[in-house]
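User: Teach me something about this protein's shape.
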Amino acid sequence: MPSHHESHGTLDVWSVEGRFQQLIYSPRGSIEGVLIDTDGVPTQFVFDRHDEGAARAFESLKVGQALVIEGIEAGPSPK
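Assistant: First, the predicted structure itself:
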C-alpha cells in the first residue's frame, strides 16, 4: 500500500510495499523498472533514466519476493 514517507525539500518521498512480479524492459532491452503487486493492485516503479545501479539491485529478485520501494511520484513521460 503506498504511504507518504517524508518530505525532502520540495520532493515528497513515498514508500510502496508489495511483492515483486517482473522487471520492465525498455524497447532497447535495458531494465527500466519493476512491476510489483501491492495488495492485489499492479504497481509500476520506473527508475531514473540510465540508473544502472538500481537495475542491478533488482536483477536477483524472485517472483513473489516481498519488498519496499521508496521514490517520488512523477508525471507521465513527455514522449
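Now, about its shape. The chain has a mean pLDDT of 82. Residues 36 and 43 are 5 Å apart (CA to CA). If you'd like, I can walk through any region in more detail.
User: That's plenty for now, thanks!
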